Fold this sequence. Notes:
By secondary structure, the protein is of the alpha+beta class. It has helices at 4-7, 21-31, 51-59, 87-97, 116-120, 125-136, and strands at 9-10, 15-16, 35-39, 45-50, 101-106, 109-115. The chain has a single domain (4-136), classed as Roll (CBS-domain). The chain is built from 6 helices and 6 strands. Strands 1-6-5 form a 3-stranded antiparallel β-sheet. It has a 3-stranded mixed β-sheet with strand order 2-3-4. The longest helix is centred in the last third of the chain and has 12 residues, at 125-136.
Amino acid sequence: MTRVRDVMTTDPTYVETSETVTRAARTMAADEVGALPIQGEDHKLKGMLTDRDVVVKVLAEGKDPMAVHVGELAQGEVVAVRPGDDAAEALRLMARHQVRRLPVVDGDELVGIVAQADVARELSDADVAGVVKGISHD
Length: 138
């Protein structure tokens, strides 16, 4: 059985709640990623910031990305997995919450990030197809 630790990216880049959306967007561009974990001043995971969040919740609403802090966009329950979790379960969690990336935590510490593509390379085509359908479903 493939575990999350076997497919995750370790030492992920993250943004802190106090950083501006502009700085977060620049980090995304520099690292060529579409999402970043949001970490609080208490070093606990607060959520994920996506490029879609930047566009829909900041730019489309006419807000100033230099004035909005990332923490203002961290909402709801944090969905995460642990390194020892089954990779197939991570895919099911992605489908259930319609996300393509999950932070990986060990206790409260952010230790990685796992993407749909990371897991897809390890699992059967049938498992992956079901997840892609679940994530893409409106």
